[in-house]
Amino acid sequence: MRFVFEPGFFSNAPVRGALTLGAIVAVVSAVVGTFTVLRSQSFAGHALTDVATAGGAAATYYGVSVLAGFISASVIGAGSIEAIGADRVRRRDIATGIVLGAATGLSALFLWLDSSSTTTGASQQILFGSIFSVSSSTVADAAVLSAAILLVVAVLWRPILLSAVSPEIAAARGIRTRLVGLLFTLALAITVGVTSIAIGSILSTALLIGPAAASLRVTRTVVRAMALACVLGVAATWLGILFAYDSPYWDSSGSPLPVSFFIVVIVFFLYLVTGLPVFRHRLARRASTAPSGPGPGLVVPPPAVATR
Amino acid sequence: MVNAWEVATIVAIVAGVVGFFVVLRGSAFPAHAIPNGAFAGAAGANLIGINPLVGLGVFSLLAALGISALGRRGRPDVATALALVMMLALGDAFLSQTREFEPQLLALLFGDLFGVATLEILPVAVLGIVCVLAVAVLYRPLMLTSLVPEVAQARGIRPQMVDTAFLVVVACATTMTVPVVGALLIFALMIGPPAAARCCTSRPGAALGASVVLALIVVWASIACAYSSNWPVGFFVGTYSAALYAIARLSEVRTRAWPRRLVLR
């Protein structure tokens, strides 16, 4: 035990806070992330973190709540992406790019204003975050907002799923796909805002996309993929926190490595491992023996189909 | 100041040319990911004490090859996102090992156009010429695979090869431009002006020319404003690019009834 958990791991208050927040964030990211991957919105999911950064920098400059800055900026960003054009995939790409470019311009301005006023080290904090330094009120805010997001996703479950997997069937059943897309992108924006404030924008993208993409490669239904993504996300987060806590003890220099580094490495490793031929063959064999799948809209396109 | 004008002009021409194909191919995400990955390389080079340009070059190449290799086996956007976060996490780890990097961090992310020394212009110009030449060589395969994939396939062009080659060109453009305009803003310049140009004209050659001209206008106006207001140049590049696209889209909507433009869309 002594070699796995360095002294004080369980009795340390920041570590307990980090474990709690990490689990909350990993679960909500996994749920929203599964739909994000299915809808091919990884770019928007990442771009919104940079948009949120602009809001965080502006909030720091004007001295208002950083969480409010993160969330309002990413909601405005999501709205503009949808307004410019989400009807065609290629135009969505450009729309996301334009919003991202404008937002980075704004963050350049506000980070510059921040660094020329009194706050030092604010830019690195906003960009990379630190899971060990979150306050307990942030944990509470994150929990409430995450619960709200999960509720919205649960209520909109079938429309989101159907319009993600087959927009034509969704439209034929009278689902307003533009509206569902807008609502989902707003939920994505709030998720990204919450997770960025808690753990920094790098980790937010990693937890959103990584576990979901890895589990979609090895499961056949959305529910199972989502459950597996939650497990993988929480496991990656907790392992990353453990490694980061232990890392100063590894060599004589004693300088810690960031949590985000370990979590991203674990997530990336999971994605590579689930792409191994072993899993693809098992999946293909099960697909050929399974009875004709569940109802329309519930079948995940298998990885071979999902490639371009 | 003169150095800034010269370097910015080179950067704008390259961004206009490369960005035109970024927009045409819908590769905005890789074009965002490669400069950000390159930033991690600069942090690593700073850590072990070598020229940041080497770190930028190595990491942007790694990012380009990684994205194209991972993208073959799965969803391309997921592959890009994961390659990007992996690079950023490495950058974070490098940064955590040094203490006095904060001012340079901001310069790398947002550019330091007015700090360009005369000696730095030559490598930028050389890399810029290499990029434009590479695009000239790849011009027909790039056009064919982007616009009429079936014809490209019939002619024996392999789309994966063209894709990888194009990402390497983006990496090359990134290496030369990040120290000057910053990792985040080369992206704005590669998307805004070309997307606006595509709204104005449907002929590929004219759109390419318009994209370069618009990129030059954005950069020159940004430098002038940044010089007189003392605000970071990146702010102006980002907002002017977006504003340009907004104007182009609005004018496109107004003239949509015009029946002559059908080729590019």
Structure at a glance:
By secondary structure, chain A is mainly α. Chain A has helices at 13-38, 42-62, 66-84, 89-116, 122-128, 136-155, 157-165, 167-172, 177-199, 201-218, 222-246, 259-274, 277-289, 303-306.
Sum up the structure in keywords.
A: 308 residues, mainly alpha, 76% helix, B: 265 residues, 11 helices
Please characterize this protein's 3D structure.
The complex is a heterodimer of chains A (308) and B (265). Chain A contains 14 helices and no strands. With 308 residues, chain A is an all-alpha fold. Chain A starts with 12 loop residues before the first helix and ends with a helix. Chain B has 265 residues and is an all-alpha fold. In chain B, α3 packs antiparallel against α4, α3 packs antiparallel against α8 (159-181) and α6 (121-147) packs antiparallel against α8. In chain B, 56% of the residues are buried. At the A-B interface, α2, α4, α5, α10 and α12 of A face α2, α3, α4, α5 and α9 of B.
Helix content of chain B: over 70%
Total helices of chain A: the number is 14
Structure class of chain A: mainly alpha
Strand residues, percent of chain A: under 5%
Classify the beta-strand content of chain B into a percent band: under 5%
Average residue pLDDT of chain A: 78
